[in-house]
Specification:
Blueprint lengths: L27 H13 L8 E4 L4 E3 L12 H4 L3 E9 L2 E3 L1 H14 L8 H15 L3 E9 L16 E8 L9 E5 L7 H4 L7 H12 L4 E3 L14 E5 L4 E4 L9 H9 L11 E4 L4 H5 L3 E5 L5 E7 L2 E2 L7 H12 L10 E2 L5
Parallel strand pairs: 7-8, 7-13, 10-11
Antiparallel strand pairs: 1-2, 1-6, 3-4, 3-5, 4-15, 5-6, 9-10, 9-12, 12-13, 13-14
Length: about 350
Amino acid sequence: MGNPTVSSGKAPEVENDDDFRVHVFSSSSELLEKLHEKWSSVEKQPYPAMYSSIFGGIILDPAMMVIPIDDHMVHRGHGVFDTSIVLDGYLYELDVHLDRFLLSASKAKISSPFSQSTLRSIIIQLTAASKCKKGTLRFWLSAGPGDFLLSPAGCPTSAFYAVVIDHDFSQCKEGVKVITSNVPMKPPLFATAKNVNYLPNVLSVMEAEEKGASSSIWVDEEGYIAEVPNVNVAFITQDKELVMAPFDNILRGCTAKRLLELAPRGEGQGVEMRCASKILMVVEGKVAGESLFVRRPLTLLPRMVWDVQPNGSGGVGEITMLISNLMWGGKGSFLDTQGNRVPYVE
């Protein structure tokens, strides 16, 4: 899965390039010892378990959580992924994410080596083996290893990988700063499939960080608000209408879909609103009463400042927080839906 050490991105300094000598590992055991040495300094294992269809099983040793260098997902970006959450020993909305996962795979012309029910079973068993009770579970479908050509014709079979990521998360109650991105957004074919080609997304976030913001908002060529590089964006207008861009040209967010279902049900908690799927110009979004980022389950990020311009009153929106509370514990919320209980073995 990677190296636990943090790199500065700079090459090691040597007095003369001719003096630099590359170590040659004489055996696999020597290499494995080196990998274990790298992970031994990590206080808490962030990836308690991984599944690889190439290995044909679940891996608990972080030093062995690797994928082949000639996997087409690595060198050609020919792969798709999705993410579910683990909370209190339950996997939430796994089937919803698997549905989108396989739809993305179909758009990428990648056939799964397993049926959807088998993928579901693998993921649940992986989570059980990880013993993780809170975190995320990310899974990938790749064209598979085989060669370094463009076409996947030389790949004997597709590959399925999944990893449990042990990390804490909680309800966000603080606003974030965003900018309008200058990085071109993805065309619809690539934006509507959750694929591993994330260079535009990465550059867009880096652009925001360089300007002191946490993220950015993509706007199409006609000036309409589309999405954030890794989340959907919603607006609450002055007349309390929840507005979100249609999913024709952007990724269909699972949490966004759930939000549109929940918001009209919040009358008992002081939320009385209509929901609409329509496009907004940037100027309309900036003058909206409130706005929020809608990302993985349970995570709603209130937006406070956009291109230096404060959102509404300049603070976290009251309606945004009421909706967030609905997501976290109201009737029909993520926590109120039927999750998949993970059969942990103590």
